[in-house]
Amino acid sequence: MADKDFEAGLGGLDEGPGASATDPEAPFGEAGHAADHPTVAALRERFGEAIQHHVVVAGDEHVVHIPAERNTEILRWLKEDPEQRYLYLSDITAVDFGGGRPLEVVYQLWSMELKRQIRLKAQLPLSALEIDSAVPVWKAADWLEREVFDLFGITFRGHPDLRRIMMPDNYAEGHPLRKDFPLRGRFSRAEQTRRALSMEVEDYYTPEELGIAGDKHRHGQEAGA
Amino acid sequence: MGLEKGSALPVAPTGQPSFITSKLDFLVNWARRNSMWPMPFGTACCAIEMMASAATKYDIARFGMERMSFSPRQADVLICAGRVPYKMAAPLRKIWDQMPQPKWCISMGACASSGGVFDAYSMVQGIDTIIPVDVYVPGCPPRPEGLIYGLLMLQEKIKGESLSNAAIREEDPLRVGRPNLPPETIEELALPFGNSTQQNRASGLVSTSLVARPDDRKE
Questions:
Q1: CB of A187 within 8 Å of any CB in chain B?
Q2: For chain A, which end, N or C, has fewer CB atoms within 10 Å of the first or last residue's CB respectively?
Q3: CB A186 within 8 A of CB A176
Q4: Which of B90, B187, B219 lies at the smallest CB-CB distance from A201?
Q5: Does B215 touch chain A (CB under 8 A)?
Q6: A168 contact residues in B (CB cutoff 8 A)
Q7: Does A174 touch chain B (CB under 8 A)?
């Protein structure tokens, strides 16, 4: 009996959290009220229909869903508008719910001056995993976007140096945090070990990699291109 | 202890003979096992316990591990403390290859010995797939007493070595930077409980068969 309950509890785990209880169109979380968060009110006023959803999770975390093609426009406004001042980019990450659902890119912003935080999410269909890079807005986005690229395979257009950051450079098994990635990897353990040992250790201690070679190499002409 | 005229043997002023006879093996092993300098390869929480072992309260210097040698060229025993992801496999192998003979290796903790709970795409399933291991210290993490016991076991092991047996110290230059085990063995070790079963079997103390659950590999 207990086993049955356990199995039932596992149902739908692959699909991730479902839709909101109040609005079937809205994503997971309670429907938020713009009046509760000054930034959301301002976003609604400035961008109107582009603010697709506003939900509140975990009590007081406001999540705003935006279209992927307008992400840098909205992010730049949040950073530069004198009323918002989200100068600090806490995190960029992504979520894969599995089951063919779109991937979500998540931006977590923090305004130190106004002591506010907000989370933005942009959906990307599995067929077109591309979004504009936030590096021109916050330099901190550089490594965060490399991480998302490495683990989820999302391409950031205009990123100055988009390559793997966590998995080895010669990693050929794909993007491990995707739901369709087998837990133990695609290759056999022997093959994984062989490939790992074929890595050139010194490559990770070059002046360019350690960031002491100056910015010319990585943020020069390439960033403009 | 002058050499007196007419006497057959050197005699100390006390009148006692001033030499001893011993086996060369005994002397060499005595010197080796009492002056092992560890090369710490700490990657996770086991390293905290390793540091505690070297600090005042436990003080492995009492047993001849006089100092942590942060250069592989001046080290005798590699202590791999913590989980090793595949990205750290090449550095680990490189450090091992850089250490001069005679050298030994201690695998400290469950993760280094078998991958521990991290049976995932990113994790080496036991460092013995990469480098030869002399002593496995179980625990998650092992207490300093555990590591010290492992070091004492290694000292016991060195006691049994012989200079006449060159095979112990043999190294094949062609295997530098290569996996330590053949592919089939690595596959066997990577099965659930594979490495711990293998280590139990190697100890000769436990008779056991390999636990294989093919369902676990379903995607």
A1: no
A2: N
A3: no
A4: B90
A5: no
A6: 86-87
A7: no
Of residues A166, A189, A191, nearest to B125 (C-beta): A189
Q: Report chain A (225 residues): mean pLDDT per 10 consecutive residues.
A: 67 65 68 84 88 86 92 92 91 88 92 92 92 93 93 92 86 88 85 87 74 55 42
pLDDT at A224 (0 to 100):
41
> Is it the case that residue B28 has pLDDT exceeding 70?
yes
Per-residue pLDDT at B209 = 55
Confirm or reject contact between B122 and chain A (CB < 8 A).
yes
The question of ipTM being above 0.90 is answered as no
Q: For chain B, give the percent of residues with pLDDT over 90.
A: 35
Contact A194 B179 (CB under 8 A): yes
The length of chain B in residues reads 219
CA–centroid distance for B93 within its chain: 14
**Cis amide linkage into residue B183, ω under 30° from 0:** no
B88: nearest Cα among B48, B135, B41:
B41
Size of interface A-B (CB pairs under 8 A): 70
Q: CA dist A60 to A29, A55, A172, Å? A: 11, 10, 41
On whether any CB of chain A is under 8 Å from the CB of B219, the answer is: yes
Nearest to A54 by CA among A65, A39, A46, A69: A65
- In angstroms, the CA B158 to CA B87 distance is 32
Mean pLDDT of chain B: 83
Instruction: Compare all CA atoms of chain A with the CA of B86 and give the residue at the minimum distance.
Output: A196
Give yes or no for A176 touching B (CB within 8 A): yes
Of the partner residues B121, B129, B186, the one whose CB lies closest to the CB of residue A183: B121
Q: Are B183 and B175 in contact (CB under 8 A)?
A: no
Give the tens place of pLDDT for each residue, A55-89: 888 888 999 999 999 999 999 999 999 888 999 99
Nearest Cα of chain A lies from the Cα of B3 at a distance, in angstroms, of 58
Closest to B76 (Cα-Cα) out of B51, B96, B53, B55:
B96
Residues in chain A, overall count: 225
Q: Specify the pLDDT at position B115.
A: 85
Q: Where are the alpha helices (DSSP H) in A92-168?
A: 141-152
What residues are paired with A131 via a beta bridge? A156
